[in-house]
Write a structure and sequence with these properties.
37 strands; 4 domains; elongated; five-stranded mixed beta sheet; alpha+beta
């Protein structure tokens, strides 16, 4: 029996055992902590307690960290100047169709395009990520870390040993941090020092500039503001759509227009600047660009360009008048409508600037058929390169001869589905090469001094093809009016069944012709002061009487007045005619000149006389001499 309030001996013994176990557990925990602390001390003693080093050793190490900072600065500068790349992607050349290679040569510095169109019309992007830039910087530092210059210290007796580097780089908005793990030991006499981890912080806006560059690029890809400005430049500096009041053709030189466009693109691109709120024409609204940064757009007329215009005859663009043809006298006036379609491709270098730092990347501006390119996010369009030009597996034997059955060295290309592949050049008139497979493709043959040929051919299986080229002969052209030499403006056409050649006289005084039948046409224009007053003409059209009446076929005439403005015809048809002529191979081979004898037409002093001149022109004969 246990009396309440008094502990038994057994109870006291149990409490004693519990107390002893608790003390043992505490001692074990304390022992573990002591062992851990001692281990951590020895592991991190170099960081906890900096060993005392002499000023000479400290100078060596400071030189090393300074060298790392220089290398980091150099790597950052290369990234900024080369669009986020230190090690350039594989180079890809352009073509006559698309002038862009995969890199823009800017003052001798190759910069990878962030967006471009390859030579075979495939859209491509090369936008590096921030992780890509960090990785390239790490590789750069790993390659440079053991190349620091220590010759002065070696001459003082220092021994410097470096292990294998392992860099980690972090790009932030205001700095680039380097954490380099590499054994770096210094030994001189009895003194030694070893460091295994090295940290460098380099102040730079690389991260912030890169973020802004991405914003500019995304804005361009989504809204194509550079293409929009390009279309405006095109319509301002080149004939695109319009109507001129004239009774003679309007003629432009495409080469002159392209030269002016190049200068205009250079000047107008340089005038662009970023703004958070677009108020002026040349301000480009790019949201969220820091106020301390500015964006600049560069173009040079000396960079690669590509311009095409249709319709054209070589470098000549011409629009013919309407209203002066036979049977159109009812119009009462002449006008020249024109519509030209352009393809323009040119590079723009984008620079994001903060203080002395510039991050730059190029991209391609592509305008097709007077319109900005379609946005496709950089995915391939058209025939992929691997499916056509890079996938040649059908052996073809091509032989090229002239009309005398002599072999001709010619450039061979193959065109299918809008994609053109260069095949090669014949040697002694022959070539044996693999072609891409295509149904009803075109083998194109081009040789200096010969008429270009294009032959439809299916390259589904191996085959042979013999092609005969027609030689072109260059002849001087001399125009005579009323048996007198004529050196004023005229347009001369040589029209054959499958081609037409135009000579704009007297700027051009030669022509290349092959043997065949031609219709030679000569249009001579002279200055005129023919004035046509404003007139009102009534035009009538047939319309349905009503909705039900239209279904039943009941119609009525509705007439309206057309106002024709007054105009002055400054150039009018005043001479020329048409003549059929057969140029023989023998005659062309032995001749150097073409003399064309045309006659004048009455000087038009009224619209009726102008109309009469066109009627006479159709049957006005000419004489042609080839000698």
């Amino acid at each position: 029996m246990v009396i309440k309030g008094v502990k038994s001996e057994g109870s006291n013994y149990g409490c004693f055992l519990k107390s002893r176990r608790g003390q043992v557990a505490i001692f074990i925990i304390i022992a573990i902590l002591i062992v851990a602390i001692v281990a951590l001390f020895f592991i991190f003693k170099d960081k906890i307690i900096k060993p005392k080093v002499s000023s000479g050793v400290e100078s060596v190490y400071n030189t090393f960290t300074s060298c790392l900072e220089d290398d980091l600065s150099l790597g950052v500068g290369v990234l900024e100047s080369q669009g986020g790349y230190i090690y350039l992607p594989e180079y890809e050349s352009g073509s006559d169709y698309m002038p862009f290679s995969s890199q823009l040569n800017f003052l001798g510095n190759p910069i990878p395009y962030w967006y471009y169109v390859s030579g075979n019309d495939v859209e491509k992007e090369q936008v590096p990520s921030k992780a890509d830039m960090q990785k390239e910087l790490e590789t750069f530092i790993d390659n440079k870390a053991r190349t620091c210059f220590f010759d002065d210290y070696y001459s003082q007796g220092y021994e410097i040993t470096m292990g294998k580097p392992d860099s980690t780089v972090t790009i932030k908005d205001g700095e680039v941090a380097l954490d380099l793990k590499m054994d770096f030991s210094i030994l001189k006499g009895e003194e030694s020092y070893v460091a295994r981890e090295h940290k460098v912080i380099f102040s730079s806006e690389l991260g912030s500039l890169y973020n802004s560059a991405l914003k500019v690029y995304d804005e361009e890809q989504q809204k194509q503001f550079l293409e929009q400005y390009g279309v405006d430049i095109l319509r301002l500096y080149a004939p695109v759509d319009g109507v001129d009041m004239s009774c003679s053709p309007e003629i432009w030189n495409a080469n002159d227009i392209f030269t002016e466009l190049r200068s205009a693109i250079e000047a107008n691109t340089l005038a662009l600047k970023n703004s958070n709120n677009k108020k002026e024409y040349f301000q480009v609204q790019i949201p969220d660009i820091p106020a301390k940064q500015r964006v600049r757009f560069l173009n040079s007329k000396n960079w690669s360009y590509s311009f095409e215009v249709d319709p054209s005859n070589g470098p000549i663009m011409m629009a013919n008048p309407v209203g002066n043809q036979q049977g159109l006298g009812i119009l009462g006036f002449c006008y020249v409508p024109y519509h030209f379609v352009y393809n323009m491709n040119y590079p723009v270098l984008t620079q994001v600037i903060s203080g002395n730092e510039i991050f730059q990347f190029p991209l391609a501006v592509v305008i097709k058929r007077n319109q900005p390119r379609n946005v496709s996010g950089g995915e391939a369009v058209g025939m992929p390169d691997t499916e056509l030009c890079n996938d040649k597996n059908t052996l073809m034997n091509i032989s090229v001869y002239n009309s005398d059955l002599k072999p001709v060295n010619a450039d061979i290309s193959f065109e299918c589905l809008g994609t053109k592949c260069n095949i090669g050049t014949t040697q002694a008139g022959k070539i044996s090469e693999e072609f891409p497979q295509c149904v009803n493709g075109f083998v194109n043959i081009r040789a200096d001094g010969y008429k270009e040929e294009s032959v439809m051919y299916s390259t589904i299986q191996e085959g042979s093809l013999s092609i005969y080229l027609t030689k072109l002969y260059n002849l001087s052209v001399q125009l005579k009016m009323d048996n007198q030499s004529y050196n004023k403006e005229a347009v001369i056409y040589f029209v054959s069944g499958d081609s037409s050649t135009t000579v704009f006289y007297p700027q051009q005084k030669s022509v290349e012709l092959s043997a065949g039948d031609y219709e030679v046409q000569v249009y001579v224009y002279k200055n005129s002061t023919l004035k046509l007053g404003a007139t009102t003409q009534q035009q009538c059209v047939t319309v349905p009487r009503s909705l039900i009446g239209g279904i039943l076929g009941f119609t009525k005439q509705e007439c309206f007045d057309t106002q024709v403005p007054a105009q002055v015809i400054s150039n009018a048809l005043s001479g020329g005619g048409k003549q059929n002529y057969t140029f023989t191979e023998e005659g062309l081979r032995s001749s150097k000149n073409i003399n064309i004898f045309a006659t004048s037409l009455p000087n038009p002093d009224s619209l009726d006389q102008l109309q009469t001149n066109y009627v006479i022109f159709e049957s006005n004969p000419m004489r042609i001499e080839v000698k």
